[in-house]
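pasting for the record
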Amino acid sequence: MKYVSASQAVQLIESGDSIYVQGSTSIPEVLSQALADRGNELKDVTVYAAFAVGRREAPFCRPEYKEAFNVKSLFVANNIRRWLADGYGSAIPAFLGEIPGLFRDGTLPLDAVFLNVSPPDKDGFCSFGVSADLAVSAVECARKVIVQVNKAMPYSYGDALIHVSRIDAAVETDDPLVEVPTAVPTEIDSAIGRHIAGLIPDGATLQIGVGGIPNAVLSALKDHQHLGLHTEAMTDGVLPLLESGVIDNSRKEVCPGISVASLALGSKRLYEYMDYRKDLLLKDVAWTNDPFRIARNPKVMAINSAVEVDLTGQVCADSVGTRIISGVGGQHDFMYGGSLSQGGKTFIAIPSMTEKGRSKINPVLAEGAGVVTTRHMVQHVVTEYGVASLRGKSLPERARALISIAHPSVREELEKSACERFGYSFLRIR
């Protein structure tokens, strides 16, 4: 494989091209900067960005480059959030598991892909490391593959592999991956974690997200047995359970004995754990997030979060009112797959109040808020005050259950709203 400079590599990009830039904690920063440096000579280059954690704002998100780069977000990440909020870029609503299909059927045509990969193994294969997710389909569909060969990238198995013969330009780097600090659970997080862990049986297959509440759930599972991992995002929180043998994947139907994820984000310890580990596979997100594949595993426990929930169980998870702050991700995929799994359970885990003191359980969603998970699909909503089981309940019964786990300071107001909405059918429920 012939190495070139970053400025030489991005000469392959022409005006009018469309590019997918790899995400997770492996944004190819050197290539991104080199592309931005051509901002005065390029025009109408479409940049597709997905879920990512960047060290800084994307270098091509600058007002003077607004005619050069058209940023389209498939998940509003931290490095482009302000750019979109200012109206320069745009978001494409889509379930994360369905985005590879948009590349593959040409709905979102790709001319090039920027990757951050490991050095090649003895057979000439580089690994995408911590980010298979959309990168697998992007590589399949792009005419030009431009990579950073990064000494800091772990070598992961599964779908996230590319032979050097497929690479059009390579830039040698030694660029440590972004580290996401392990969120330390608060007392509220721990209470929520205990509520959920008490409903998780031995032999369950976990899908779990990122943050204090997921880590609290994982901490509360240390005495469980024979758990499995089939998730979208792998974090440091699962390492103690893997290392202790609590997660042994022995009861899974899909890839028994193997942990499965689509991306990873965490600390250097997590990345070192992943390196050349054959009992861990990183797979195309269309594969990991297929609800019917998820459902083949027994006792799937899908644990997700939300911005707010209304009294009928509608879940908003990607926006604050009209302002898009993230994306749908895999919440819908795993909530559906978990509901189809034999013995499966799904959870929306939220603190009762935001850090600013606003209730997360409200009479209705904020004006302009998007529904990520419909009221028809939600099974359990969990706060520090307990578990509201909504499956099979009428709308008034759901309201009563959700009010019981709301913050005590807002329960009277919520009851008044429920009474006005549902009338006697709500009042009769005690």
